[in-house]
What we know:
Order of helices and strands: HEEHHH
Number of helices: 4
Amino acid sequence: MGLLTAALIGAGATGAVVGAPFVLAGIGFTSAGIAAGSIAASMMSSAAVAGGGGVAAGSTVALLQAAGAAGLSGAATAAVAGAGGTVGGLVALLI
């Protein structure tokens, strides 16, 4: 593995972990709850309709809201870093 590849993997992992809270807030998963009129509100509405009036615990919407409210857990941080590192590695292959 070359220096450029390592740098891009590191940058991808770091960027994903740092950027995740901003992306979550940007689509409506905030620390104060789901923002009205946002993508998150649409997702929650769809999940509630599909779930018979409630959002199931452990669903995508529930996990994203928990991350938006409390931040990423250790496991979520590792998953986001892994995904970002993978994207960085793929970019390195293209360069």
